[in-house]
Amino acid sequence: MRSFSYSRPTSFEEACRNAGHTRFLAGGTNLIDLMKSDVERPAHVIDIKSLPMHHIADRPDGGLHLGALVTNADTAAHPLVVERYPLLASAILAGASPQIRNMATNGGNLNQRTRCHYFYDPAMACNKRSPGTGCAARGGRNRIMAVLGTSDACIATFPSDMCIALAALNATINLHGPDGERTVGVRDYHCLPGDTPWRDNILQPGEIVTAIDLPPAPFGPHHTYLKVRDRLSFAFAIVSVAVGLCMKDGRIERGSIALGGMGTKPWCVPHAEALLEDQLPSHSLFRDVAERLLHGAVADRDNTAKIRLAPRVIERALWQAAIGTPQSQTDKAIR
Amino acid sequence: MTRESVAVPCHLQINGQDYSADLPPSVTLLDLLRERLDLTGTKKGCDHGQCGACTVLVDGKRVKSCLILAVSIPDATVTTIEGIAQDGRLHPMQQAFIDADAFQCGYCTPGQIMSAIALLEESHVHSRAEIREFMSGNLCRCGAYNGIIDAIERVVSQQHRNQAGEAA
Question: Where's the 2Fe-2S ferredoxin-type domain (chain B) (predicted)?
Answer without folding.
Answer: 8-84
